[in-house]
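Hey, I'm writing a tutorial for new members on how sequence and structure tokens pair up, and I'd like a real worked example in the thread rather than a made-up one. If someone can provide the structure for the chain below, I'll link this post from the tutorial.
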Amino acid sequence: MNKFLLCIICILALSGCAKPLPEDKLHYVGEWQSNEMALLILADGTVAYKRLKGGGTTSVNGPLKEFQGDNFIVGFAFLTTTFKVTQAPHEIDGVWKMTVDGVSLTKV
């Protein structure tokens, strides 16, 4: 997880390129986790993502460019990644949940 923290620090340096989240999307802000995925979304529009799948690791770190419905796009110019949100952040019994790219995440 130390590499994840290093990525977060690098992203903070690039956060000047990010757009702050709109008021109606602030419930996305936070650190979201599952056994195979970690997703950090900051209010300033900075995103850090790491996923373990099929014996490999995928990481995406960059500014949040825009929302398209509940989905969000992260990256620079033409180098972007779209995160498909099938369940937007919602609270169940005091615990926040969200489903991104088919993975159920919990806010920690």
